[in-house]
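Lay summary. Proteins are chains of building blocks that fold into shapes, and those shapes determine what they do. In this project we predict the shape from the chain. Here is one chain we studied, written as its sequence of building blocks.
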Amino acid sequence: MKKIVSVFATALLLSVAGIASASADTKSDYQAARATYKAAIVTYKTAVTNAHTSIESARATFKSARDAATTKEAKAAAKATFESAKTAAKAGIPTKPVKPVKPAELVKPVQP
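And here is the predicted shape, written in a compact code that computers can read:
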């Protein structure tokens, strides 16, 4: 009986040690994913800011070209130029990064 309890206790300790090491790996992986996410968010926000600046500049150029235009064709060309500049600025924006999900092992259980 003592031998069975000893074997059971040893198995329990090994499983707890395995969980602790897995948890440490999981935690470091999660922290790395968060750091990558934070860097990606900064890159994304910078790209969005640059796109807004570019679009505002194109809009100002469009307004001045539209006001200076004397024919419908010139006004249409100014608008087409603005639209293409706007599309190019939006194309420079990367997809928004997805926030990493916290692993269930790291979530503290809710006490009722």
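What the prediction tells us: Residues 5 and 39 are 51 Å apart (CA to CA).
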